[in-house]
Amino acid sequence: MAAVEIKNLTKNFDIEGHAVTALSNVSLTIEKGDIFGVIGMSGAGKSTLVRSINFLEKPTDGSVYIEGVDLGTLSERELRRMRSRIGMIFQNFNLLEQKNVIDNVCFPLEINGTKRKEAKKRALELLGLVKLEDKAKAYPSQLSGGQKQRVAIARALATDPQLLLCDEATSALDPQTTGSILELIREINEKLGITVVIITHQMSVVTDICKKVAIIDNGRLVEEGLVEEIFSAPKSDAARELLSGKKVSYKPLEKLEEGRRIRIVFRENSAYEPVIANLILKLQIPINILKAETQNVGGKAVGEMILGLPDNSNQQEDIILELKNAGLTVTEVHENE
Amino acid sequence: MNENVIAMLISGIGETLYMTLGSVIIGYIIGLPLGILLYVSGKNGLRPCMPLYRALDFICNIIRSIPFLILLILLIPFTRLLVGQSYGSTATIVPLVVCAAPYIARVVEASLTDVDAGVIEAAKAMGASNMQIICKVLLVEAKTSLITGFTITTGLLLGYSAMSGTVGGGGLGDIAVRYGYYRWQTDIMVITVILLIIIFQIIQTAGMKISKKLDHRKR
After folding, report:
1. Which domains does chain A have, with CATH numbers?
2. pLDDT, tens digit, for every residue of A269-279?
3. Which of A16, A280, B136, B190 has the smallest number of CB atoms closer than 10 Å to its CB?
4. Measured between CA atoms, how close is A56 to chain B, in angstroms?
5. 3-state SS of chain A?
6. Does residue B96 lie within any of the structural domains?
7. Is the ipTM above a cut-off of 0.90?
8. How many CB pairs (< 8 A) connect A and B?
9. A286-334, pLDDT tens digit by residue?
């Protein structure tokens, strides 16, 4: 049974009498134990999507199943009980500022009626897990952003959830802290087997930690699949834009014209071979490297390069053939300005 | 100054404190739930209900737009019905409460509105009920702002209780009017004013100190 199943989800908001569609006919399946990324530009509808998973936003149309249970059929009380078994963390941490760290972690347990003593014991365990035992008595205002998010994670785990929703959980953090929070999320996923849904606008977060990703653009699901596949051969414009950080499109190769550029992606074995050097030596054609980068995609080193090709179309063909023979993914780059 | 005057001033202080605290306590018993209701039923509240909100909003605005002195006179029949007489400090508590409750409701509503929406969302995501959100999130997170509001309200009621002296309400205001205004005993009036200033300062300083002490947001 899937951890989360979203079927034909549509959400309209009524803003001053106008219906605004935030999500349109989105269907997604998130398997148990996955770390699933949902990525999109701001305003794409991804926050609405994650809020639909625990029904903080009730869909206009369509349904959400958590471990086979249709949330739409639950009473208010049953829904609250369901929510207490889904952990959630936020961009702004949303800790109770007037409660200290341990009371914040105890809070969901207080809500579901756990005895104070038991709750405290559990909270201390969780603070150990997020390595903040020494801050139990501190107040949120005395903590750094990364520490606050660790407290929020401990709080989200207090009720032993099977699902953890992360809404832009690292967007307010610096890159180094982001790394350590993602590491913690990965650890939680592995150790406790909790399914994780990560909403983000940062491709690096997805490539760093997610196994699968869904790309949301303008309220629609435009692409879904394994992170590795989408990284090396993005099909949608939104995916390309998120990968490059600007409006470019990688089109399937047709006939190359003057001044054309191609994007190649190295994976695993090919990343260790001097492919470009071999190519230049063999064909005796100068190649302009416009961009080169290595990224960690799902634990594997993946290289990305943008090459400028010579004008001669025969030479272009030769180069592309050689690259493909070396096992690389080749796509054409267009700048849409 | 003779002993009679001193005894009168002491009992005046007692009456003033009795009226102020009595009205602020009863005012909060009515105003606090009313303020919570305003917040909860409001547009961005936990359970928006515009007809209820508009009705409460209207009543609060009407009462608050009536000057206190007029309210004091208007309510005389009601006060007589409730307390049996329309003068004296117990009777004064009635119009003070009527005046304070909608004011308190507004102050409470404003304090609750200031609570970070994200924290409320987090509590909802944990499965908290609206009642739990009110008791365990809103009132806790708005604690310091509520105490500040309480202090300001108490100060206001202290001033209003003195004003009620003009219609025989008792307390320091009554003394100031009777001796200072009708008998031209400026010295007694000055003393009552100084006493009112001292009481006001004590309330204000203590309230702000407590509010600051309980605030964990910034150290």
Report:
1. 4-233 (3.40.50.300), 246-335 (3.30.70.260)
2. 665 678 888 88
3. A16
4. 7
5. CCCEEEEEEEEEEEECCEEEEEEEEEEEEECCCCEEEEECCCCCCHHHHHHHHCCCCCCCEEEEEECCEEHHHCCHHHHHHHHCCEEEEECCCCCCCCCCHHHHHHHHHHHCCCCHHHHHHHHHHHHHHCCCHHHCCCCHHHCCHHHHHHHHHHHHHCCCCCEEEEECCCCCCCHHHHHHHHHHHHHHHHHHCCEEEEEECCHHHHHHHCCEEEEEECCEEEEEEEHHHHHHCCCCHHHHHHHHCCCEEEECCCCCCCCCEEEEEEEHHHHCCCHHHHHHHHHCCCCEEEEEEEEEECCEEEEEEEEECCCCHHHHHHHHHHHHHCCCEEEEEEECC
6. yes
7. no
8. 76
9. 888 887 877 777 667 778 888 888 878 788 888 888 888 887 888 877 7
